[in-house]
Write a structure and sequence with these properties.
Elements: H1 30-36, H2 43-50, H3 59-78, H4 92-101, H5 106-120, E1 126-132, H6 135-145, H7 148-160, H8 162-166, H9 171-192, E2 196-202, H10 207-227
Parallel strand pairs: 1-2
Helix pairs in contact: 3-5, 4-5, 7-9
Length: 228
Amino acid sequence: MGKTPQKIPSQALSHRSHRTSARAPNPMSYRKLNHLYPEQISQTLLDELARHDVYDLPLDEYCRLAQDRWQDFFKTANASDTVTLLECCLFQNPLTVLIARHNADPQLARQHIEQITKIVSALNPLVIYLHPKNVTDALQHVRAERPKEWADFVTWYLTGQAYGKVHHLSGFDGVIQFYSMRQKLEVEILRSLPVQHLVLEHSGNEWKQCEEEMFSFVNLFWNRDLST
């Protein structure tokens, strides 16, 4: 397939494949690479990577593979005293694949997340959900802090996949519409799960208070577990 252009980090060519280890360092989506470096990624390479893209599998197969990975995580975590902190993997990643990419029925996404919760339930997981009171303000704040390429890519992805096309999303307003829908769905699912959780509503200015609430929440269950 030829040499990787020097401007592209060599580790970036990891892709979301059911044949590839999840432990590859700093993996980057090949679609994002194509968006960032359109003239440096050959179509032959893109086609080869796309053949192994787990996100393009039938949805039931994607869910099965994802749940298999959660089973692997459970076995590892259950055999260790280490406390593991996870981010984005319970809601953001599944909903991005199932809904943003494939416009799947939200009920399928709900069932998938419920199954993940069952898999790890014996670990007594705690979920902390940061809930911006104003999605538009939160996204505009992030947009101002990050490079223009971030907003361009997110806009391209969320408006150009199945959900965005069906719902006629466009521009950054389309991004806001998607995240508003996703936040509502996530909170509905979270409140129905048999898992201890904390929903922290914030406007982006009260992080000290949020930290105190998080520490209190975690310590409550940490101390309870130590006493049993």
